[in-house]
Amino acid sequence: MKIAIEAQRIFRPDKHGMDFVALETIRELQKRNDGNEYYIIVAPGKDHCLEESANLSIVEVACPTYPLWEQIALPLAVKRLGADLLHCTSNTAPLCCPIPLVLTLHDIIYLEPRQQRSPSLYQEMGRHYRRLTVPRILKKCRKIITVSHFERNRIREALNIPADRITTIYNGYSRHFRPMDDIDMQIVNRYIPQKDFLFFLGNTDPKKNTARVLKAYSLYLEKSSVRRPLLIADLNETYIDRLLQQENISNRLKRHLFYPGYIHNADLATLYNAAFTFLYPSLRESFGIPLVEAMACGTPVITGNTSSMPEIGGPDILAADPCRPEEIAGAVLRLENEDALYRQQREYGLLRARQFSWKKTADELIQVYQSLDI
């Protein structure tokens, strides 16, 4: 079978969640001798993180905007290739697709009510584009893939999708996320001057719950005798200042904060290992790859008790109500004060993470392709 896979953003240097899902799954497919020919359709970029092989070809398609790339350039490329199937990997797809379509729909957060707008114009435009296209695309998909049973149920309920047209395939994690005997402090010091810090992967998306994490951190500092610093990824000082003012948190907190901006994926495993705990109390997640990555490194995780996080974290994950900063702070203090709990969470996370792998993801994806009987 000639399978075209849309992976538009994987060559960009600053990759995020869906980009890594596509890239790592494609790398696993590339290892197979399954008789399929894979054509990976990408936009030009500086990070050529994938190489061609006997069963995999890379097709670069340039276009000035994402909607034009997806709605015009992508269908034309697929038609030229003579592909049997198109798999779009990042929530949206061409409204007019010349061949059978499989869609990975990571979430439908953009179709749900929200408490506030994103301050990012890019995120706002993306939200409106998805709201416009996704409901129309789903009717045309031969199969819809999502990343948790929680999200599968949400999609079915919200969009009235028959059970046989949507399936769950869990994400995996990369094998460089593992416990390290020796932590490279040169890498750590690029972002923060010491280890045993609190680690939070924030961004401007309201679902990441950054304002309440900062409030929780201020409560933690009031009660902790250790007062560990907080490393915050993907946020700048202007945005943090705005949140501190919004939440009426003293600016004195800032001397404990480190916010280096984007953290390269190659450095994340070292930072998870160097961290005392990883904070992931999101308001809403469809899967939560960082949750699994941190567990795979043996770093205790504090996550939210909502959406997919209990499903992915499992029954013994340390979970808090993400709307209650005092619960988040209390969980950090418990890990700090209860050595037995800290050891138990470390061991539990290592065991839990073994349930996820990109190999399993690729195995189940191939089963979906084969089930279409094309």
TrEMBL record:
* This protein's UniProt keywords: Transferase
Q: Which GO terms describe its molecular function?
A: glycosyltransferase activity
Cited InterPro entries: Glyco_trans_1 (IPR001296), Glyco_trans_4-like_N (IPR028098)
Residues in Glycosyltransferase subfamily 4-like N-terminal domain copies: 17-173
Give one Pfam hit by family name. Glyco_transf_4
Which superkingdom? Bacteria
Q: Name a single GO biological process.
A: lipopolysaccharide biosynthetic process
Q: Which residues form the Glycosyl transferase family domain?
A: 194-349
Query: Gene3D superfamilies this protein is in?
Result: Glycogen Phosphorylase B
Q: Which PANTHER family match?
A: GLYCOSYLTRANSFERASE WBBK-RELATED
What is the protein name given in its UniProt record? Glycosyltransferase family 1 protein
> Which organism is this protein's natural source?
Bacteroides stercoris
Lineage at the top is: Bacteria, Pseudomonadati, Bacteroidota, Bacteroidia, Bacteroidales
